[in-house]
TrEMBL record:
This is Membrane-like protein. The chain crosses the membrane at residues 6-22, 29-47, 67-85, 97-117, 137-155, 167-185, 197-221, 228-249, 269-287, 294-312, 324-341. PANTHER family: BLL2549 PROTEIN. InterPro entries: DUF2339_TM. It comes from Mesorhizobium sanjuanii. Pfam families: DUF2339. Keywords: Membrane, Transmembrane, Transmembrane helix.
Length: 352
């Protein structure tokens, strides 16, 4: 067990030797030898992701063979990339090994964190067990954080790997959110327990925190990355916030298990309409203040859905006072939005 773990670490460390050799002889082949070490480590962990074998892997969180097995290669690949950038001219293809080493360093840094998370959440077993929503939420937050870190590093030391890698991290995180958070692992469909704590529960971890992270990343990269990328993150952040608020209302009425098949009450139905209108107005306000067309469009879409729900669903499901309140609230919001836009247009006319 010790031998196989040490082999992985030494293979990763071997990438440093040819990179250091470029201090004396800047032969292009030296950079490719470092890349060869990356390929060897990838083959090694593909054969045994546990580094030392599942039966020998300690159940102690963090401080086990996964930390040096993935972490040391991440550090050595990063150092090799830094060394190649200093000593190998980026001409005639000589810069490609450096870019490959940068990509490998970023990949292994993410793998280190992801493997440690999986190890900790599955009692020391990483190759069995279904991914839960809580675990997936942590992976999503890691991907969003990696996207921000890569952007920050790219601002200091520009690199195409960092530039495209940061976008890839964001796109992967959005894919996680759409496929896992909204569909496959959504407690509305799985009826997974959301926890007994009112605020700091599964919904907080899986929807609100990623919403804040995606929104923060969208603001951070507004002038640093393509507009479509920032818009995508902003939309996802808004939808996550909407999902958190909606599912929290569901939890308020149903308790920790919010499966869709448990039905809808009249008061719960009315609460959704009111909540969606409030969120729509909040998105409109944020869109105006941040001068974000994406948020304004999201606001219009959500308010349209709320209006449709009131006329199609609430009219048939609600009775008495709740039906009246639903229409009164809708009318008040629409009038308020109209006055708000009238004020904006008046101000714009004066400024012009």
């Amino acid at each position: 067990a010790f031998g196989s773990g040490l082999t992985t670490i030494l293979l990763g460390a071997a990438a440093v030797v040819p990179a250091l050799a470029t201090r004396w002889r800047a032969y292009p082949v030296l950079g490719w030898i470092s890349v060869g070490a990356v390929i060897a480590v990838l083959a090694r962990i593909a054969f045994d992701p546990t580094i030392v074998g599942a039966q020998f892997l300690s159940t102690t969180p963090v401080f086990n063979w996964l930390l040096p097995g993935y972490g040391v290669p991440a550090l050595t690949f990063g150092f090799a990339a830094w060394q190649l950038a200093r000593t190998t001219p980026a001409m005639a293809g000589n810069g490609r090994p450096r870019l490959a080493m940068e990509a490998a360093a970023a990949l292994f840094a993410l793998l280190t964190i992801a493997m440690l998370v999986r190890h900790a959440m599955h009692g020391g077993v990483i190759d069995t067990g279904v991914v839960t929503l809580a675990e997936q939420a942590i992976y999503t937050l890691i991907a969003l954080g990696a996207g921000a870190i890569l952007v920050a590093i790219d601002m200091r030391s520009p690199s195409s790997v960092l530039r495209y890698g940061s976008i890839a991290a964001g796109v992967v995180s959005v894919a996680f959110i759409v496929i896992q958070h909204f569909l496959a692992l959504n407690p509305l469909f799985t009826d997974e327990s959301t926890g007994r704590i009112p605020v700091f529960n599964l919904l907080f971890l899986a929807y609100l925190l990623p919403a804040v992270a995606a929104g923060g990343l969208a603001l951070y990269i507004r002038d640093k990355r393509p507009k479509w990328y920032a818009a995508m993150l902003a939309v996802v952040a808004a939808v996550l916030a909407f999902a958190y608020a909606t599912l929290s209302v569901r939890r308020l009425f149903k308790g920790e298990f919010i499966g869709l098949w448990s039905g809808l009450g009249q008061l719960e139905t009315y609460t959704y309409s009111a909540l969606w209108l409030v969120i729509g107005v909040a998105l409109l306000t944020a869109g105006v203040r941040l001068k974000s067309q994406v948020l304004r469009i999201a606001s219009a879409a959500l308010i349209s859905v709320a209006v449709l729900k009131v006329f199609v669903f609430d009219m048939s499901e609600l009775e008495g006072v709740l039906r009246a309140l639903s229409f009164i609230g809708l009318g008040a919001v629409l009038i308020g939005i109209g006055l708000f836009y009238q004020r904006l247009l008046t101000r714009a006319a004066k400024d012009s």
